[in-house]
Amino acid sequence: MKSSHYSSATKGSEFEQTVKISETNVKEHFDVVVIGGGPGGTPAAIDLATSGKKVLLVEKSGKLGGACLFIGCIPSKIIKHSADEYYFGKERQSGATPSPEERDRYWAQIRSNMERILSSRSGAAYNGIQKLKNLTLVGGTARFISNHEVEIASSDGGNMRAEFDYGIIAPGTSSTIPPFKGNATGELLTSETIFSRDSVPESLVIIGGGPIGIELAQMFSRLDVKCTVIEVMDTILNGIVEPEFVSGITERLQRQGIDIFTSSRVSEVSRSHGKFSVAFSGPDGTTRTIISDQVLVSAGKKPNLDELNLGATDIMYTPKGIAVNEYLETSVNGIYATGDVINAPKFAHTATYEAHIVAANIMRGNSTRPDFTKNSWVLFSDPEIASVGYTEAEARRKGIDIVTGVYDYKIDAVTQINGDPFGYLKFVVDRRSSVIIGVHIFVKDAGAIVGEGALIVSRGLTLRDVADAIYPHPTLSEAYGYLAKKMIQEAAAKGAVRSDHPTRDSRTAQSSERETADSVQI
Ligand SMILES: Cc1cc2nc3c(=O)[nH]c(=O)nc-3n(C[C@H](O)[C@H](O)[C@H](O)COP(=O)(O)OP(=O)(O)OC[C@H]3O[C@@H](n4cnc5c(N)ncnc54)[C@H](O)[C@@H]3O)c2cc1C
Fold first, then answer.
1. In angstroms, how far apart are the furthest CA atoms of the chain?
2. From ligand 1's centre to the CA of 63, what distance in Å?
3. Looking at 77-81, 98-102, 172-176, which range is the least confident one?
4. 171 CA from centroid of ligand 1 (Å)
5. Per-residue pLDDT tens over the stretch 111-150
6. Fold of 375-513
7. In testing the pocket of ligand 1, which one of 73, 176, 206 has its CB within 8 Å of the most ligand atoms?
8. 159-169 and 26-35 as β-strands: parallel, antiparallel, unpaired?
9. In terms of Cα–Cα distance, which of 149, 150, 148, 172 is closest to 61?
10. Sorting pLDDT into bands at 50, 70 and 90, what band is 157?
């Protein structure tokens, strides 16, 4: 415990760990106040406290982990894992359809396993933080009263004011539900509420075919829930994954029994006699209605700004979140924002990357800028889709002269051995420098090999660098080497490659030559 103003952690249930403000009207000065104990806030608080700054970390829920741990990355992957076990289990594969009661029992087991994992992970984070003598963690909601002062109200009535030199705002986002016509808007589920339900519905309409909607559709479908996805754009995962992957994933989802309606706009959601009816107009303008047990909306997020009282500050923001400069600093000197609340890729690892950058900028002055063109992510569908860096479309939009190449996992030893010879690895390569600027993978377990792509793109490796690596056989990642060699050979066959096809190191050494080279290298 860091000060007499706070009472020690209470453990009501294993799930709760809060550091309470035991007094009222306390005022204390900190070097840094961090608002939000998720992936965008906690790592920055730890870096700064470790470096000797006096840090206050404020978390509304009193539990460390944020959306990622409690309603996002981790619970969704626990359910996906269990849903896969259920779906591929002997009983179901033998054709026996479990009764609704059996399914609910299985769901109860999943939830209890989930609570155990979440509690243990949050507890481990809490125990780690407790060891940092410069870091004070309080459970409470922070609200600005001026540019450099916040008021914190804890759920048990205590309150305090904290003045600070530096601030980090990382409050995350919340799901939004559009104002559909009909009487049911208040009863619709979101990703924030579905995991804590006591039972699994027989049928579920998911409004929104983005990454979260698709992950949820597949995992609930594997628990024998009849899932229907309604997406307003003309494809699911529109503009997110490489267009050539879309038909493959759509076909796989449909084969699993998920109905997908694209170019379809929901107009009304109503409830009567315990069932929801969802009316939507399709591409030809006709209106259809689907009856379902539950409806989940995965169609947008809004930044959690309401409780922050930013009106008391000079911090600028838009409906997309808090405005930041290239150092992630807001319009107020010394106040930074990270994670989902800024207009940047919304992933836990990206939030953490930003948190470390902001901590470095506070410690050493603004010197580090994030490079989101090297971001990576995984869509945990089956097969998984994973991506790093520029998509082909983004690179072309930016005017980068690129060449692309694709490895077809149909010929791959591992996919053949696993009985599903399907998938693709795609490189987006800067034609002049031969640097791989995008890696896109669509294959079972793509997430397990995308880290290699992240390293390739973040280190600016060339096709030659990758072609020269010795990949173990048989593995999914040897495709990296095959594809790099294939692209070099294809370019050579076109007479478009220099004999000294560059590695990253030779590019650095020969940068002046590269600037003047006009030959197409690949
Ligand atoms: C269903 C789902 C699945 C996902 N899966 C993945 C995945 O597989 N991989 C991945 O990388 N990302 C995934 N994400 C996204 C990931 O969860 C977020 O990108 C990440 O949690 C953002 O971190 P953050 O710190 O910005 O915000 P959050 O994690 O939302 O944390 C913000 C914290 O701030 C607290 N807070 C808010 N306001 C205040 C206040 N005024 N005072 C004090 N505290 C406050 C909140 O209680 C919360 O704990 C998923 C999201 C969802 C919804």
1. 77
2. 12
3. 98-102
4. 8
5. 999 999 999 999 999 999 989 999 999 999 999 999 999 9
6. Enolase-like; domain 1 (3.30.390)
7. 73
8. parallel
9. 172
10. confident
185-299 is a CATH 3.40.50.920 domain: no
Distance of CA 294 to the CA centre of its chain: 25
For residue 346, what pLDDT band results from cuts at 50, 70 and 90? very high
CA of 395 to the centre of ligand 1 (A): 29
Q: Is the pLDDT of residue 432 over 90?
A: yes
* Residue indicated by tokens 């415990």: 1
CA 348 from centre of chain: 5
Helix, strand, or coil here: 7?
A: strand
The closest alpha carbon to 137, from 234, 59, 41, 27, belongs to 59
Is 503 strand, coil or helix? coil
Give the range among 65-79, 281-295, 503-517 with minimum mean pLDDT. Answer: 503-517
Nearest CA to ligand 1 atom 9: 73
According to CATH, the topology of domain 6-68+116-174+302-370 is FAD/NAD(P)-binding domain (3.50.50)
Q: What is the pLDDT of residue 518?
A: 31
For residue 307, the ligand 1 atom closest to its alpha carbon is: 41
Return the ligand 1 atom nearest residue 347 CA: 19
Tokens matching residue 485: 């060699």
